[in-house]
C-alpha cells in the first residue's frame, strides 16, 4: 500500500514537473513569438517610413532650404524675393550643391524621428483607446478623429522633442553660406560647436513654439485627412470611391489638403522657432533683424518676445515668410513619400495606413 502511495506520489510529481515544463515552454514561446513578430513589424515599418521620408525630403530639399532662408533673411538686405528668383539666386551663387545644403542633416533626423513617432503614436493610441473604453464602458469603442488627433499630437511632440537638436543644427547648416566666417563642417561638428560655445540649452532654443506648433500641425493633419476620407467614402461624390476604397490619387489629394491646412495654421510658429534657433550664432549673416548697427534686435527673451519683435519690425506678413515654397513642396513631397512608402512596404510586407 505504501509502495503504491509512493508510486502515485512519484508519478504525480513527475507529471507536475512535466506540466510545468510544458507550460513554461508554451508561455515562453507565446511571449517570444509575438514579441519577435512585433519588433520585426516595427522595424519594417520604420525602414519603410524612413526611406519614404528621406526620398521625399531630398526631392524637395531646394524648396525646403529656400523656405528657411526666406524665414530668417534680413528685411533690410533682401536677397530672396520669391520662389523662382530665390532658387536661381542660390544656383548662381552656390551652385547645385547649394540647393541641397543641410539636406544630409535633414535626412539623418528622419529615421530616428520616424522611429519615435511611429512607436509613440502606437502607444499613445493604445493608451487613449483604453482610457476611452474605461470612461464610456464600451469595450468595443474605437478611436474617433478627435482621439486620433490627440494621439498624433502626442507622437509629434515626443518625436520632435527627441530629435530637436538635429533640427536646430539643420537650420544653421541650411542658412550658412560660403561667406560665413565660421563654417560648420557637418552634423557632429555643428552639434559639438553649439554645445561648447552656447551651452546645452542652445540645442533646444525655439523648442516651445515647436511644441505648440506640432499640436495643430500633426493634429489637423490626422483630423482633416481622416475626415475627408470618411466624407468621401460615405457621400461617394463624382464616383471617386469604389468598393469603399479610395484611389491613390484621391488619397494623395486628401493628404495634400490635410498638410496644407496644418502647415498654414502652424507656420507662424515655425518661423519663430527658426529665428530663435539662430539666436547666439554671430556668423549667421542673413538672419539679422534690423540694420547692421542694431544686431541686438535678433535677441529674443522668449517666444512671445520673438513674435512681438518680428511683427513690430517687419509686419504681420513676416510670420508667413517662405510659406509659398513650403506650400509648393507639400503636394510633391506627399506624393513622392506615398509612392516610395508603398513600394518599400510591398517589398517588406508592411501593412500600414498612410495617415499613420
Automatic annotation (TrEMBL):
Pfam families: Mito_carr. The keyword Transport applies. InterPro entries: MCP, MCP_dom_sf, MCP_transmembrane. Keywords: Membrane, Mitochondrion, Mitochondrion inner membrane, Repeat, Transmembrane, Transmembrane helix, Transport. SUPFAM superfamilies: Mitochondrial carrier (SSF103506). Belongs to the mitochondrial carrier (TC 2.A.29) family. This is Mitochondrial carrier protein. It comes from Malus domestica.
Amino acid at each position: 500500500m505504501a509502495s503504491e502511495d509512493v508510486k502515485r506520489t512519484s508519478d504525480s510529481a513527475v507529471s507536475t514537473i512535466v506540466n510545468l515544463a510544458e507550460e513554461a515552454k508554451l508561455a515562453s514561446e507565446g511571449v517570444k513569438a509575438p514579441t519577435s513578430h512585433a519588433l520585426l513589424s516595427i522595424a519594417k515599418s520604420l525602414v519603410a517610413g524612413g526611406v519614404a521620408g528621406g526620398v521625399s525630403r531630398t526631392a524637395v530639399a531646394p524648396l525646403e532650404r529656400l523656405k528657411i532662408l526666406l524665414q530668417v533673411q534680413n528685411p533690410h538686405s533682401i536677397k530672396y524675393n520669391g520662389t523662382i528668383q530665390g532658387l536661381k539666386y542660390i544656383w548662381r551663387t552656390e551652385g547645385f550643391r547649394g540647393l541641397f545644403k543641410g539636406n544630409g542633416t535633414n535626412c539623418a533626423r528622419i529615421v530616428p524621428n520616424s522611429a519615435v513617432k511611429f512607436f509613440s503614436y502606437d502607444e499613445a493610441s493604445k493608451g487613449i483607446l483604453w482610457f476611452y473604453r474605461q470612461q464610456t464602458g464600451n469595450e468595443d469603442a474605437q478611436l474617433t478623429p478627435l482621439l486620433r488627433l490627440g494621439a498624433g499630437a502626442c507622437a509629434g511632440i515626443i518625436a520632435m522633442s527627441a530629435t530637436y537638436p538635429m533640427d536646430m543644427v539643420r537650420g544653421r547648416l541650411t542658412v550658412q553660406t560660403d561667406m560665413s566666417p565660421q563654417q560648420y563642417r557637418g552634423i557632429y561638428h555643428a552639434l559639438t560647436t553649439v554645445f561648447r560655445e552656447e551651452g546645452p540649452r542652445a540645442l533646444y532654443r525655439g523648442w516651445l513654439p515647436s511644441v505648440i506648433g506640432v499640436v495643430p500641425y500633426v493634429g489637423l493633419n490626422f483630423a482633416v485627412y481622416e475626415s475627408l476620407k470618411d466624407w468621401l467614402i460615405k457621400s461617394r461624390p463624382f464616383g471617386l470611391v469604389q468598393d469603399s476604397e479610395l484611389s491613390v490619387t484621391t488619397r494623395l489629394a486628401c493628404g495634400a489638403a490635410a498638410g496644407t491646412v496644418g502647415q498654414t495654421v502652424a507656420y507662424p510658429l515655425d518661423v519663430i522657432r527658426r529665428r530663435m534657433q539662430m539666436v547666439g550664432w554671430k556668423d549667421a549673416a542673413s538672419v539679422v533683424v534690423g540694420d547692421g548697427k542694431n544686431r541686438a534686435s535678433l535677441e529674443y527673451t522668449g517666444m512671445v518676445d520673438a513674435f512681438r519683435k518680428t511683427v513690430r519690425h517687419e509686419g504681420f506678413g513676416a510670420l508667413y515668410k517662405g510659406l509659398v515654397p513650403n506650400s509648393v513642396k507639400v503636394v510633391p513631397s506627399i506624393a513622392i513619400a506615398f509612392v516610395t512608402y508603398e513600394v518599400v512596404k510591398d517589398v517588406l510586407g508592411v501593412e500600414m495606413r498612410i495617415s499613420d
